[in-house]
Specification:
By secondary structure, the protein is an alpha+beta fold. 31% of the residues lie in helices and 34% in strands. It is built from two helices and four strands; from the N terminus they run βαββαβ. It has helices at 14-25, 53-62, and strands at 2-9, 30-36, 41-46, 66-68. The protein starts with a strand and ends with a strand.
Length: 70
């Protein structure tokens, strides 16, 4: 298992949090998702043998949010 923390721009409410959590949790290999609206951070624990960080970022982009690259 691998844990990544991403900064996601555009999240501002509980509905945003629910959308991001649902999109990521629906991917095969994602173990847990923790969204913090105050810091705009999303922590994801996932099985890197099943999916990549690019796949996670793509799922976030697909629902209309931007992942801020460090």
């Amino acid at each position: 298992m691998k844990e990544v923390t991403m900064i996601v721009d555009g999240m501002s409410c509980g509905h945003c949090k629910m959308n991001v959590t649902k999109a990521l949790s629906g991917l095969d290999g994602v173990k847990s998702v923790d969204v913090n609206l105050d810091t705009k951070q999303v922590k994801i624990l996932f099985d890197e043998s099943k999916l990549s960080q690019d796949t996670l970022e793509g799922a976030i982009a697909e629902i209309g949010y931007d992942v801020i690259k460090g």
